[in-house]
Amino acid sequence: MTNRPEGDARAARNARREAARQRAQRARTQQKRRQRGVRLGLQIGLGVVLLAAATIVTLVLVDSVKPAGPGPSTMSQGGITIGQDLKPVTAAASGSTSASASPDSAATAGAGTVRITLYVDYLCPGCGQFEQANGDYIEDLVDSGAATVDIHPVAILSNRSQGTKYSLRAANAAACVAEHSPNQFYAVNQALFAKQPDEGTPGLTDAELTDVVTGVQGLSERSAVRSCIADQDYAKWVDEQTTAVSEGTIPGSTLKEFPGTPLVLVNGQRYELTSPVTNDDFRTFVVTAAGATDATPTPTPSATPSPTPTKR
Question: Which residues pair with 114 in a beta bridge?
Answer without folding.
Answer: 147
